[in-house]
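Assemble and predict.
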Amino acid sequence: MSKYALEAVGFVGLGARLGTLSEDLTEDHPARRLQTSVKDIFDLAIRIEARPKFMKHLPTAPYRKILAACDTQWEISSMYIEQARNTIKNRGHEIPEEDKSIIEKLLAIDEKVAVMMANEMLLAGIDTVSFVTVGFLYHLATNPQAQDRVREEVRSTGTSRRYLKACLKESLRIWPVIPANLRRTTREHVVGGYLLPKGVEVIAPNEFLSKQEKYYPRPLEFIPERWLADKSDPLYYGNAHPMVTLPFGFGVCSCIGRRIAELEIEILTSAIVDNFVVSWHGPPIKVKTTIMNLFQKPYNFKFESVK
Ligand code: HEM
């Protein structure tokens, strides 16, 4: 799944195929090294963040490893960005605006921003998409009626994908990849009678809040219909406070890849459900929460061709 996510973000962001989906991807292939370095960065970040910060004076093994992973991620993403830049420069003719990659559009505005954005996309757009896609497929596999309804929708001649989108929203409510949103206050605030001074770190535990009965009835159940119900229905999602469920964050720091991610996941899931009946054979999947959520393997999916 993370190979698909990397290939897709490379194509949309840089306008290039990275070759991640190739069957004989070796460990030293740049795409593979990029994928591993991103995984290491996220795995190690919590160990670095959650422990006393004396690493600068006494560099521990995880600290050295995360620095090496950041260097590899920067080196390989810079190489891909350079390749994309050369392709654009050597093309020698204009192409329609809608066919341009994100980096091509950004390079025309600001070179520094273009490079930073492309680099961040190749960091933030891999494990996030793969986690959410696995979670979404799991929910469809364990809720066959919802899966049948999605199949009916993707096979219909209509263009609406309302039910598919509602299923994705519901899956993100239950398993957002980032369990909590973090901010540092830039001024004093009073929230619920508590004074938050300037310059402190604040954690909004959105996953925890999204699983509270007072915001969502039957909060642990996968009920996509709550995103489609009208206001008179007790399930109506709008009864929850709008800041409770924020799987892509909020405000100026919110996820820049939201639309790309949603499209990637909707396209892949539609194709899978159109061709296969997906089921789950094994104990419930387990989530490990660190700086982001991760599923514990094995993945007990079964894919059978749709008759
Ligand atoms: C379903 C998949 C994804 C989820 C759930 C997700 C979620 C998030 C969240 C919660 C944040 C922090 C927002 C905040 O603090 O308010 C974030 C930031 C970010 N995301 Fe995503 N993301 C996903 C996919 C992607 C993809 C595909 C890309 C790139 C194409 C991307 C690029 C970024 C970047 C660059 C940031 C940092 C923004 C900043 O700090 O200004 N994300 N994402």
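The pocket of protoporphyrin IX containing FE is lined by residues 9, 120-121, 124-125, 128-129, 132, 177-178, 181, 247-250, 253-257, 260-261 (CB under 6 Å).
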